Amino acid sequence: MKKISVIIATYNYGRFIVEAVDSVLNQTYPNKEVVVVDDGSTDGTRNILKDYIEARRITYIYQKNSGPGAARNTGIMASDGEYICFLDADDRYLPDKLEKQAALLEDETAAGCFCNGRTFEGRPMLRGFEGRGTDCYFEDVLSGLNIFTPSLMVRRSAIDEAGLIDDGFRLSCEDLDFALRLTRNRKFAYISDQLYERRMHGGNLSGQPGRVQYFLKLYDKHSPSLSEEQAAKLRKTLSSHIFSESRRDMAAGAFVSGIKDLSDAARMDGSKAFKLPSLVIRYLRFSLKRLMKRGAAK
Length: 298
Hints:
Elements: E1 4-10, H1 14-25, E2 32-38, H2 45-48, H3 50-54, E3 59-62, H4 68-78, E4 83-88, E5 92-93, H5 97-106, E6 112-119, E7 135-136, H6 138-142, E8 152-155, H7 156-162, H8 174-183, E9 188-198, H9 212-222, H10 228-251, H11 255-268, H12 276-297
Parallel strand pairs: 1-2, 1-4, 2-3, 6-9
Antiparallel strand pairs: 4-8, 5-9, 6-8, 7-9
Helix pairs in contact: 9-10, 10-11, 10-12, 11-12
């Protein structure tokens, strides 16, 4: 039975960390270790985990705040499992995640595998891959398949080949960059079961401003090694992500930022320029609602 190392990177998520740790310790798969990398928390996370640390139920590492990618890399290097998994400190695994994914890898030559998941409210994390088989390839990732970090189980040997997580993608795209490198020369297996749950809240990195620069950075990093057709697929995928950022800006009333993001999306995929009218309408609706609320408050 292969040993599985689960890396939990955390930064000021003491209010969630016990639930995350317990979701791994309570897995049906017995041969596992939990490595918690505290990325400079100031909320007493270590004290919250004191009993787990003293009982040696987890390995706890504290480091200066360096971002989630760097924290995960610390965990990878400190662990010794043949399979590597990741869990965000505000999320949780369902009880048989490790067992089902380990069984899949035992029967596969894939570099790793990924699964579906759901939000705490029950919405699926991944749509559109069902019905396309159980294997995932580089072209699937280029074309927009989201392999979320908590869904992964990766062979350590595959990470040795592809390299550690690029911690330069501090706010976004580290999972996409990692997936592109892992699948470049080897396939991934897919299990459609929902095996983890993601907690949606105001602190999620996916909702933070300043993410567009990382989409542009990712394209600059990978495009030189892609064919023209592959580069076009990646541009279309990244353009869709950037357009989503533009919509989010408009919904928040940030008109200038929204237009700038739309411009970046249009440079990636010219068809996004035709989305301007819908974004302006979105902004006007927001502005009208805000004015109506102000009027009602007077």
